[in-house]
C-alpha cells in the first residue's frame, strides 16, 4: 500500500495557488512516526517526510500493517524493530536513528512489556526500575 506524505513541513508558507507536494511511499519503508509539537514526522530509511494529518489518524491507518503506539508521540513498525535498549531507545533494522520511548507517557505498559520481552527477551520491570536513571541520562545528554 502507498501512503501520502510531503517532503515539506510548513505547507502554510506556500504561495497562493501553489499546490502541496504530495508523494506516496510504500508503507513497508516506514520505520516509525514521531510527533514533535504539531509536526508529524515519518522516519524512513531514505529520510524524513511529514504527514498532513494527526498521529491518531496515522495510527488508525497503520495499525493493520503492524504499527503500534508506544507512548504519546511514537508510532512504530513492530516488524522493523531490531531491539530496545535498557534506556528505552528503539533501534530499527537498517537504520541509524532511534525512537526514544517516553517513560512518563506510555500508552500501554502491558503491551510494551510484551513487546520488549518478545524482541529482547528482557523483563520490562527492570527497565521501569531504572526510569529515573534513564530520565537523568537523557536530560544530561540533551544539554
Automatic annotation (TrEMBL):
Residues 21-106 form the HTH LytTR-type domain. Keywords: DNA-binding. It comes from the Bacteria. Pfam families: LytTR. The keyword DNA-binding applies. This is LytTR family transcriptional regulator DNA-binding domain-containing protein. InterPro entries: LytTR_DNA-bd_dom. One of its GO terms (molecular function) is DNA binding. Gene3D superfamilies: LytTr DNA-binding domain (2.40.50.1020).
Amino acid at each position: 500500500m502507498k501512503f501520502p506524505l510531503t517532503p515539506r513541513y510548513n505547507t502554510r508558507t506556500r504561495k497562493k495557488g501553489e499546490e502541496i507536494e504530495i508523494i506516496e511511499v510504500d508503507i513497508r519503508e516506514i520505520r516509525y512516526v514521531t510527533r514533535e509539537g504539531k509536526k508529524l514526522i515519518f522516519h524512513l530509511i531514505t529520510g524524513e517526510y511529514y504527514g498532513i494529518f494527526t498521529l491518531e489518524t496515522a495510527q488508525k491507518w497503520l495499525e493493520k500493517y503492524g504499527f503500534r503506539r508506544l507512548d504519546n508521540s511514537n508510532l512504530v513498525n513492530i516488524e522493523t524493530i531490531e531491539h530496545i535498549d535498557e534506556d528505552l531507545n528503539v533501534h530499527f533494522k537498517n537504520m541509524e536513528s532511534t525512537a526514544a520511548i517516553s517513560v512518563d507517557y506510555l500508552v500501554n505498559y502491558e503491551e510494551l512489556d510484551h513487546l520488549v520481552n518478545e524482541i529482547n527477551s528482557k523483563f520490562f520491570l527492570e527497565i521501569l526500575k531504572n526510569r529515573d536513571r534513564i530520565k537523568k541520562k537523557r536530560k544530561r545528554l540533551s544539554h
